[in-house]
Structure formats: C-alpha cells, structure tokens
Amino acid sequence: MLRLALCAVQRRCAESNSLVAFGITVPMQVVDSAPADAPMVWPPVAAATIPLSSTAKAAGFDDVTIFWEAHGHPPAPYLVPHFDFHFNTVTSADIAAIDCADTTKPAQLPEAYELVDIELPGLGTLVGLCVPQMGMHGIPSAELQAGTPFARTMIVGYYGGRPIFVEPMITRGAQAYRFVWSGVGARTAP
Questions:
Q1: Are 103 and 130 in contact (CB under 8 A)?
Q2: Which of 11, 40, 121, 133 is least surrounded by Cβ atoms within 10 Å, i.e. has the fewest?
Q3: Considering only CA atoms, which of 160, 119, 179, 166 is closest in space to residue 138?
Q4: For residue 129, how many other CB atoms are within 10 A of its CB?
Q5: C-alpha angle 26/75/160, rounded to 5°?
Q6: What does the pLDDT read at residue 27?
Q7: In angstroms, rounded to a whole number, what is the distance separating the alpha carbons of residues 164 and 158?
C-alpha cells in the first residue's frame, strides 16, 4: 500500500497577492514506500486525489490525482516504475465519466507533442492513447522516438478535443531532485 502524506503548495506575488505558482510536495518517504510490485489494473486506480485551493481553482485547476505505476505503462519509454501526477482542470466527476467514446482530438497540440493511437492486446486501439477515467495523453515526440526509458516528462491531457490536465510523470530515481514545471517543459530548480 502506498501511504500518501502530501501537501498542496502555492506561491503568491507579494505586490498583487496573485497566484504565481502552485504544486504539491511529495516527501521522499512516500517515494520510498511505493511498492515494488503491484497488480496492473484497467483502468488504473488512483492512489490519491488532492483537492486544490480556491485560488488554484480560480486559476483553472480543480485537483491533483496521483497514480503509482509499479510496472510503468505503454508506450515503451514509460515501461519503468513511476508516478503520474494529473493536475486536472475538470472536476473528479468529469474525470470519472470519461469512457473514451469521444475520439475527438484537439485541433492543435503543443509544439513537438503527439497524440498517438496505440494497440494494446485485449483492449484494442487506444485513440490518442485515451485511458478511461483519465483522457487522451499528448506525449513529447522526442520521447516516442528515443527508444530509451524516460526519467521525467510532462504529458498534456485532452478529452472531447479540449485540454483537461497536465501530467508530470517522474520515476522514483528522478524524485530525488527538485524540478520546476513551467508551461510544458521542465527545468532544474535553483
């Protein structure tokens, strides 16, 4: 069992008291306690959902859903143990209702991102890598072509042709570092 003791954090601009950043803090104890082996289930089951502050909600985000992927998941670069942190722009009820029947892809993706259709044995074709109760997953093109396991990345999620989440995915080893996610890319924090 993954024991989560996370806290949501936010930073405000001193001059205007406006929100300039928000996120979650993941204690290393949480990372270290993630089980090495866990059954794969479909659709994946969240380890936790954390509601965000009213300020973060005013900025367009509702909650953070956290998944521990003990075996990773397709496509190939992500077949290593890692955490998925879905910063959702829609409610938990909206997420729960996603069944992937709507195959509408967005008219435009961030530069260097793709929405791939993949075939999974026993599940068929996942259009736009749509996962029930999550949505479609826009993936960095370079990672799909690299052929090597990832350490950390940013996924952009869609459903019904519109963006519904941003998803930092981070391996256990990469968790030892602090990263700041800005837009769709990442940089090492000072």
A1: yes
A2: 121
A3: 166
A4: 24
A5: 80
A6: 73
A7: 5
Per-residue pLDDT of 125-157, as tens digits, reads 999 999 999 999 999 999 999 889 999 899 999
SS3 of 35, please? coil
Q: Which element (helix H / strand E) includes 142?
A: helix 141-146
Do 149 and 137 meet the contact criterion of CB atoms below 8 Å apart? Answer: no
**How open is the CA angle 78-103-149, to the nearest 5 degrees?**
10
Token digits of residue 174: 């990469």
How far apart CA 43 and CA 97 sit, in angstroms, is 12
Q: Which residue has the higher pLDDT, 186 or 150?
A: 150
DSSP state of 22: E
Sign of dihedral through CA atoms 67, 167, 128, 141? negative
In the DSSP assignment, the letter for residue 181 is E
Q: What are the structure tokens assigned to 51, written together?
A: 């509601």
Residue 7 has a pLDDT of 44
